[in-house]
Task: structure prediction
Amino acid sequence: MANASATGTARNPTNVVMLAADAFGVLPPIAKLTPSQAMYHFLSGYTAKVAGTEKGLGSEPQATFSTCFGAPFMPRHPSVYGNMLRDLIARHNVDCWLVNTGWTGGKFGVGRRMPIKVTRALINGALTGQLKSQPMRTDPLFGFQVPAVLAEVDPAILNPRDTWDDKLAFDAQARALVDMFGKNFAKFEVHVDAEVKAAAPSMRQAAE
Result:
């Protein structure tokens, strides 16, 4: 870029955090993403519209997929930005995290909002590197890594299914969310490679 000053640049980040508000209580409070998983979730842009922040919305949140978490502001095809993000994360060995500030213990109307102290503790753990040294489990739906423990956090909240009283209701809600992800991402499939496609959630994984 003409007349750009190198002194105006910052250092490469060591962490990238994507925020989602899952109104269905299926996503864990935090997950560590591979570069390809980061591209998948960046292109998906899953979150929820919440009353008080969205004009004309009733009291119940609505799931939404806002590509790159800012669809109206992307002049080029989303895959361009997704590939840039994936390549930069891989090149600079950046840790990428998906943080859910939505619901836990059930969907909206049944569960509760993710406690802010839990979100703070998990983000602090990610930024300080503490989470990287903790045991991780592979989420059976999304395939990403989820911390199993963190000193300041009740381990039960780290596994969404464990927070639901009705496990069958969780399975049904998870199936619905997986289907939503699949239908939304169909428009990107011809623009991404096999690794990104493999980052899609699957109920088959949960069954294995």
Observations:
- The chain has a mean pLDDT of 90.
